[in-house]
Backbone:
């Protein structure tokens, strides 16, 4: 079976469709500019904004009314429509279709605008869920005109969109769907901008990936989606291999030798049955931060040795579009393959000691196999190989049965002191309630199963680290975007728990977080069973973790909904049935 890309759609700082993006790439025109649409005081920070207002995008999509709509949903719907139009499916009736999107902040751009008013204005009760990742995916489907489709949301920070393409490919291989629309969307927000600013990794000039003078990244926004089908005739490129691994090193930094990145790229090559010498181009993660660029350089050298292919980062074109970067850059890779060129690494002039020397762009190049890398906070590292042709995927020689061997839950704060069995008081003091509950449930389940380190860690969460996120929003308001706490932002991403457990258990295996409202756990369990059935993992730790706060609970109470419990933590160990 071959997994074909039959349609693509993209909107970002260098273009509102694939044709515009292609022109900008070939003409080496960057989209990094002063802030125009984001309402932030940090005008000193250049960004990669989509050059359309919310109203212009609503008009493009035919959305009536003056109600607030997140840029995440608007950009995503535009890219989805473009991808479907190119695929030329002629209607989706009778087909099993899935829309899989990756995002981290969802509709946070709307939530933060109304954050203070929501505390007292009952007319805004519908808004507290605006930043839920799953809601943005459902809105995209609606605005793009999709009906009766499965929707799924992945939130693994900056590798989210690439993991969406990986999941879609897996579902097609298993004949779970006929058509997949996969990618990601992420809008700029004060939450994101201030968060990265607290980490002191934003450059006040255009970023310079892999350059010795690099001083950080520029944030960007955008969306890209691809249509995936089995054995299609109108193929733009084939998905030939992929890898998802965890660096298991630090919540925001990469290891010196880039272990997670090395493992992800190695897995992708093995799956594609390709040698390193078969790769002509790598679209690097290449953020322009001192840590990422040297770590990724080391990983690339470990994979390719002294015979490096052409390598570049396109983030000086678009900014770092975070959760959407994987699909945006995958689309760029396909455009480069079709047009026979390598995108330039803008801004590079001075080599890093021990780093790679990127390409400054070249025309007339035949690209048969390209690698696209996306690495996220928590060491969520993923790599995708796109090919001009491929031998296709083979069915596993044996399908394994799955059994549950352990299940543990924590549903009250009174249980949390028991965490001292597993972590020191100092470590515990650094954790919020949900993090404590997740660790306690996970360690108890692992102990009962007799497993120190699972092969994979899969997490489900509807709202993520809600208490931490709320504290950071309060911090932004009270301190007027100044002197904010970096630890709050570091712990706010939805995949924080999954990666924290991986770091503690030193699990370098598959790591993913699903954030799709009440369906999150179902998606996580489906993925875990798929891994085991296909022999890609023997044991998988699945967790479902959510929390509420007094502030969030007040919305539910005022709107007549069931007030959610303060914490909910469930951990399950699934394994291969060897009987």
Residues:
């Amino acid at each position: 079976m071959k997994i074909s890309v039959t349609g693509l759609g993209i909107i970002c700082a260098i273009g509102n469709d694939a044709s515009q993006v292609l022109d900008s790439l070939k003409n080496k025109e960057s989209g990094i500019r002063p802030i125009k649409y984001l309402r932030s005081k940090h005008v000193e920070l250049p960004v990669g904004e989509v050059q359309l207002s919310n109203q212009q995008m609503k008009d493009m999509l035919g959305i009536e009314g003056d109600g607030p709509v997140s840029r995440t949903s608007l950009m995503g719907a535009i890219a989805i429509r473009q991808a479907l139009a190119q695929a030329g499916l002629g209607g989706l009736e009778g087909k099993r279709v899935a829309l899989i999107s990756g995002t981290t902040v969802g509709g946070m751009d709307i939530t933060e605008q109304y954050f203070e008013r929501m505390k007292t204005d009952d007319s805004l009760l519908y808004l507290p869920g605006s930043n839920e990742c799953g809601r943005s995916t459902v809105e995209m489907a609606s605005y793009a005109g999709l009906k009766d489709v499965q929707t799924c949301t992945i939130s693994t920070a900056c590798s989210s969109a690439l993991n969406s393409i990986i999941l879609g490919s897996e579902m097609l291989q298993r004949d779970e769907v006929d058509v997949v629309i996969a990618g990601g969307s992420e809008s700029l927000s004060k939450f994101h901008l201030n968060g990265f600013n607290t980490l002191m990794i934003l450059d006040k000039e255009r970023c310079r990936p892999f350059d010795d003078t690099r001083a950080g990244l520029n944030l960007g926004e955008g969306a890209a989606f691809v249509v995936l089908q089995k054995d299609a005739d109108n193929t733009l490129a084939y998905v030939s291999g992929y890898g998802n691994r965890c660096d298991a090193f630090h919540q925001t930094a990469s290891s010196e030798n880039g272990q997670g990145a090395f493992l992800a790229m190695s897995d992708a090559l093995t799956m594609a049955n390709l040698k390193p010498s078969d790769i002509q181009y790598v679209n690097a993660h290449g953020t322009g931060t001192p840590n990422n660029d040297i770590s990724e350089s080391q990983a690339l050298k470990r994979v390719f040795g002294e015979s490096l292919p052409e390598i570049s980062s396109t983030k000086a074109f678009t900014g770092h579009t975070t959760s959407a970067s994987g699909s945006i850059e995958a689309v760029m890779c396909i455009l480069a393959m079709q047009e026979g060129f390598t995108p330039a690494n803008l801004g590079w002039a001075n080599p890093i000691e021990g780093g790679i020397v990127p390409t400054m762009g070249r025309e007339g190049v035949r690209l048969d196999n390209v690698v696209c890398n996306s690495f996220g906070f928590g060491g969520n590292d993923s790599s995708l190989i796109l090919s001009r042709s491929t031998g296709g995927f083979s069915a596993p020689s044996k399908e394994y049965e799955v059994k549950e061997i352990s299940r543990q839950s924590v549903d009250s704060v009174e249980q949390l002191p028991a965490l001292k069995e597993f972590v020191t008081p100092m470590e515990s003091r650094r954790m919020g309630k949900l993090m404590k509950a997740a660790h306690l449930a996970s360690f108890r389940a692992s102990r009962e199963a007799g497993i120190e380190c699972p092969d994979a860690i899969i997490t489900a969460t509807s709202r993520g680290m809600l208490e931490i996120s709320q504290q950071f929003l309060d911090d932004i308001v009270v301190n007027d975007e100044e002197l904010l706490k970096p630890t709050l932002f570091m712990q706010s991403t939805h995949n924080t728990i999954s990666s924290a457990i991986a770091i503690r258990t030193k699990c370098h295996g598959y790591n993913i977080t699903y954030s799709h409202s009440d369906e999150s756990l179902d998606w996580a369990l489906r993925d875990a069973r798929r891994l085991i059935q296909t022999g890609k993992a023997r044991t998988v730790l699945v967790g479902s973790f959510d929390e509420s706060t007094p502030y969030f609970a007040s919305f539910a109470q005022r709107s007549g909904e069931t007030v959610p419990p303060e914490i909910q933590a469930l951990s399950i160990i699934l394994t291969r049935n060897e009987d």
In short: The CA atoms of residues 77 and 415 lie 43 Å apart. The first strand starts at residue 3 and ends at 11. The chain has a mean pLDDT of 94.
